[in-house]
Each structure stands twice: as C-alpha cells, then as structure tokens.
Amino acid sequence: MQTVQTIITDLKDKPGALLPILHAVQNSLGYVPPEIVPTIAKALNLSRAEVHGVISFYHYFRDHAPGKKTVRICRAESCLAMGGKALESQIKTKLGIDYHETTEDGNYSLEAVYCLGNCACSPAIQIDNDVYGRVTAESFNEILTEQSA
Amino acid sequence: MSITVYVPCDSSAVSLGANRVANAITQEAEKRGVEINVVRNGSRGMYWLEPMVEVATDNGRIAYGAVKTGDVASLFDANFLNGGTHALNLGLTEEIPYLKKQQRLTFARVGITDPVSVEDYVAHDGYRGLKNALSYSQAEIVKHVSDSGLRGRGGAAFPTGIKWNTVLNTPSEQKYIICNADEGDSGTFSDRMIMEGDPLVLIEGMTIAGLAVGATQGYIYLRIEYPHALEILNAAIANATAANYLGENIQGSGKTFHLEVRQGAGAYVCGEETALMESLEGKRGLVRFKPPLPAISGLFGKPTVVNNVISLASVPVILDKGGEFYRDFGMGRSRGTLPLQLAGNLKHAGLVELAFGATLREVLYDFGGGSATGKPIRAVQVGGPLGSYLPESQFDTPLDYEAFAAIWAVLGHGGIVAFDETVDMAQMAKYSMEFCVEESCGKCTPCRIGSTRGYEVMDEIVNKRDLDKNIPLLRSLCDTMLNGSLCAMGGMTPYPVLSALNHFPEDFGIKAA
Ligand SMILES: Cc1cc2nc3c(=O)[nH]c(=O)nc-3n(C[C@H](O)[C@H](O)[C@H](O)COP(=O)(O)O)c2cc1C
Ligand code: SF4
Ligand code: FES
Question: Cβ contacts (< 8 Å) between A80 and chain B: which residues?
Fold first, then answer.
C-alpha cells in the first residue's frame, strides 16, 4: 500500500495520469489489486466504475496475481504462416495450461498476444520482457531452462 | 587504437541471441588481450543474417552472420577484427545486394550509428533538417512537407502537409504532437526498428512538427509489447535534452519542445487515432465520432497532429534535402519511399525501403527469395490484419496506394506476410473475424455484433456446414460491417475475409464464381 501511495502521489498530476499509474502499480506488484481501485479513483477524482472500466478494457492489465513469469505467444498472421498454431499447442502441452492460466508451481502464466514486431523471425514468443524468434518445441524447452536459471 | 565491433541491440536480433553474442565477443577479446569497442547498433534489417556482427575496417564495414556464440572463438582465430576470411564473412556490408538495391531515406542511418548517441547522429547528417526548419517560417516548413507529397504511413495515407496546415491554422494556446507508435499491425516492425535503431530521427521529426504547427508538447504513444524500444527512446530523449535539442530554447532559438513516452496496454484499437487520444487522456480506448477532426479538437480538446512513426521519421530528410528531393521518388500519387516489412513464410524476411512502384513479385522474390519452406507462395496479406489477401495472379501489382485500391487491397503500413500452399484460407478468414471480436472497442453494432456473428458463421463454414446458407450470410454480414462501422476495425475486417473467399473459394468448400 505504501508503494501504491507513492506511485499515486508521484504521478497523479500528469495529464491523463490513470494509465501511467496503472502501469506503475502493475510493474511493482505484478497486477492491479481490486482493493486499491477506490484509492486511485479518489486521487484522480474519478468514480470506481470508471477506473474499473479502464482496467478491464485493456488486455494488459490484470486484477489478480500472475505466475512468476508470463509467457506470451504471438497468435498473429506472420507467426501463423510459420507454424505458430502448432507451436501454440506444443507450448500449452508443455506448460500444461491454457491461456489466462498459471502453472501449478506458480512459475508461468500464459497469455496470447497479437504481434510482437518480431515477424521477420516468426514464430515468436515473449517471456516477460525477453523476445524469442524462430521458436520450435525444442528451443522452447531450452528457453524454459534458461528462464528458470 | 581499439577496433569497433557492431552487434545489434534491435530486439529481433536479440530474439536470436545478439546479447549473448555481444557478451561472448567482449569476453573473448578480454581473454586474448585485444582492445575492442563494442557498439550496439540497430539492425540493418536482414534478419536471416542476424545476429550480424560488423567490424569497422579501413575499407568499410565488414559483416559476419549469422553469428552464434559458438562461432566467436573461430572468428577471432580468423582475425575477423581485420576483416579476415571466415565461413560467415559476408563481405562489405554496403555491398550486400539486399541492402545495396534499396533506396534508404528514412532508414538511412539505421544499423549504422549508435542509436542513442547525439554525437553519432549529428556526424551522420542528423539534425540538419531541424537546422533548416529553425531558419524557416512555420508556413515554409509545412510547404516543404506538402511539396514532398508525403502521405501518412500509418495506414490511411492522408497527406501529412494538409494535416499540419490545419493544425497550424487553428489558433490555440496549447497544441500537441502525437506520435502513433502503437504499431499493432501484424507483419509490421518498421516503427520498432526506427525506435530501436535511430530514435533521434523520430525525435527530430517530432520537434520539426512542433515548430511547424506551434506545439510545445509531444507524446509518443508506444505499445506495451515494445519494452526494449521504451528504454532506447527514453535514453535518446534524455541525451537529446542534455544536448539542448529538446526542452527550452532549443539550440538558442527560443523555441520549446518537450517530449514524453506513454505506454499503451495491449489494445489494437488504440492505434486508431481518436481511441489513442482517449487512452492518452486516461480513458478506455473507445473510438470518437468525427468530426471534430483531431487537427481541430484532439488531445484534451486541443489541436493535435497525430502521425505514424515512419511519417514523422521521414520529415528530417525532407527538411534537409527539400520537399522536391523526396517527391522525386515514387510513382503516381505515391511519393517518396515506403519501408516494406517482409514477413511470414519468406526466405529473406526483413526491412526493404524502396521508392513506390516496385511490384509485389519483385519484393517477394528478388528480395524475399521466395518462401522459407521452398513451397510455392500461395497467398500474401499486405497491409496488416485488416488488409486483403492477394493470390499469385495479383503479384504484379505495383506497390502504390492507388494500384492497390484498384484491386480492393491496401498497402497500409507496408507489412507483407507470405503464406505457402499449406495455408487454409478459410481458417485465416475465421481468424480475422476472431481478431475483430477480440479487439473491437464495442462502440458500434456492425463491428461488435457483426464480428461475433461472423466468427460463428466462419466456424460453420470451416466445418463445411450449410454452405448454401452460410456463404451468402457471411457476405451480407461483411456488407453491413463495411458500410456501417464507425472505424476501419469493423469497416475493413471484410477485406481479409472477402478477399480470402473470392480468391480462394475452394478453401471454403465452394467453386470459383
Ligand atoms: C483499428 C485501427 C488501428 C490503427 N492502428 C494504427 C497503428 O498502430 N499505428 C498507426 O500509425 N496508425 C494506426 N491507425 C491509423 C490511425 O488512425 C491514423 O490514421 C494514423 O495514426 C495517422 O498518422 P499518419 O497520417 O502519419 O499515418 C489505425 C487505425 C485503425 C482504424
Ligand atoms: S468499428 Fe469496431 S473498433 Fe471501430 S468504433 Fe466501431 S466497434 Fe469500435
Ligand atoms: S505476427 Fe507474430 S511477431 Fe508479428
């Protein structure tokens, strides 16, 4: 809560402060806890419904804690042209989860993404901020080893 | 004297291991006691050769690629620091045909300079456009942009000079420049390459835009999927500010321009300029009704220029060399160059900047080298997820806005995604509807309901159920979306869907009309 207060104090006077605040909160906590919505709403003179509406509109913001790392699979055309569909199911099988789920050990969450700008190296995935190109089932195993190190 | 070695920091190069290669080179040099200076440059855009390492020699830069960490020791053994012979030696970078055949204006510096170094930028002709702009009147700056024939590279191809002129002539104590860096179109990455490889050209372009229309504040609206571009942009902005190219009294001119990067949050529709402004204002990304035009009442109700990254990054060369220089490239009403992004199933995917007018076939085969899988290219989607699919019979279409419009297709942001013969075009059409369901802002019914119904109908069609009923139903839904949607999200989803149906009817279980 201390962090959230600091974030709000630092950012609330920016024009259009809500997204920068939500980003800062999610960056430090990993998600935007529903219980802080009233605090944000009050600081920005918005209704809770407005703040909640913004959080739920954007795919990126989430209202519950994710796994330690988030795997994002590109579902868009260039990656589909290079076997992205098969890779998607291989990754789901390997992690044993579907989109918007978290592995039992809490290590990985899985999300879909529409293009990572890595289309010249399709199929592509992202784990937190790290992008990977020309991913195969085998290279995904190596990536997981590297990410767990 | 230490030798300069270039290893790209571009995120696609990094996605193939460029950071590991850079580390391995540094360590190997230390181990061998040789002094080197590693510069993390942008990518030259030849992604099948990434990570591509370059070495500065007396004769020019020599390239090695694609380099893996395991190659590093042997590169040192082969004396690559002096351009030595090695299986990965590609010769002089500038002589590689893929690069040599291009006309790089906007991308002139990408891959050559240290992206965040103002000194390097200036040494490679940077800030010459701004210098000229500072000596012109506002109307003169706008005239150069109008004369250049530059049309928006974000998709709609609207003349940039006309937009700027409207903002210039709308009086207001506060105006804004927004750079649309949402780059949501699949198959596109030119914005990213500029932001990671030559962010200062974008910063210079925005500063010139600010001078032209009288705006002192700029925002770059950057998609969340580009964390690496965020870091580089912020570093470049800090360096430009320290060198007095941003902020107050720029280069002693008395002019002011402030710049801030804001991140999106994973919504394709926020690339639409009015939804983008809603998002910047801290709201849901709902598309606004037009009028009013953003140029008259935009961000926070103030006159606002919204331009794509490539549009803005093309401004410095126009102001440096003059509108006419730029206009002399291209064909018809498509003037200048377009950075094409070759993606999908191509052997040589990458960035190809060319004057308008080359044919799609030339780009696919002379540059792209045909499909990566070696099978025939069957379909090509041009212009992002809302662009039409083109069959082989249309590959001779010149890359020109009007020529594409004439075949019911778009150039958009210049993304080119190739598919080989294994593609199922009905599945692709279904995917387009699904994408529209996912990304619709929900404001208008034709898009919101139309895409949901369209997805259900496509699901029936891929399962070959009731085709006599479902194909006409799909067409009629597309008709409603085309004619009744508020923005191009719903209004253009029929482009990929109907082009797939019309050009590849056999995939939908029907015979050609
Ligand atoms: C659904 C939708 C998504 C869009 N996404 C982008 C985008 O990611 N980047 C962009 O520059 N323009 C995008 N546009 C186009 C913008 O609305 C606008 O035309 C553009 O930013 C204007 O800049 P320009 O004239 O320099 O192209 C999109 C439009 C629509 C309808
Ligand atoms: S067409 Fe779709 S995205 Fe565009 S305004 Fe209508 S509902 Fe929103
Ligand atoms: S389509 Fe997958 S990275 Fe662009």
Answer: 428, 431
User: Residue B158 in contact with residue B343, Cβ under 8 Å?
Assistant: no
Q: Determine contact: A86 vs chain B, CB below 8 A.
A: no
Shortest Cα distance from B331 to chain A (angstroms)? 27
What torsion, rounded to 10 degrees, do the Cα atoms B374, B379, B383, B384 define?
Answer: -80
Tell me the C-alpha distance between B428 and B423, whole Å. 8
What is the per-residue pLDDT across B89-119, written as a single tens digit (0 to 9) for each? 999 999 999 999 999 999 999 999 999 999 9
Which tokens is B342 given? 């070759």
Q: Give the CATH fold of the A69-148 domain.
A: Glutaredoxin (3.40.30)
Q: What is the mean pLDDT of chain B?
A: 98
Ligand nearest to the CA of B274: 1
Q: Which of B266, B300, B344 comes nearest A81 by C-beta?
A: B344
Closest CA to B348 of B49, B53, B79: B49
Please give the distance, rounded to the nearest whole angstrom, from the Cα atom of residue B269 to the centre of ligand 1.
9
pTM: 0.98
Measured from the alpha carbon of residue B205, the closest ligand is: 1
- Contact at 8 Å (CB) between A28 and A5? no
Could you read off the pLDDT of B289-315 as tens digits, one per residue? 999 999 999 999 999 999 999 999 999
Question: What's the CATH number of domain B3-100, 1.40.20.10, 1.10.10.10, 3.40.30.10, 3.30.390.10?
Answer: 3.40.30.10
Residues of B in contact with A18 (CB under 8 A): 282-283
- Measure A69 CA to nearest chain B CA, in Å: 15
Q: For residues B214 and B408, what is the distance between their CA atoms, to the nearest angstrom?
A: 38
Distance A111 CA to ligand 3 centre (A): 14
The first and second tokens of residue A115, run together, are 């293009």
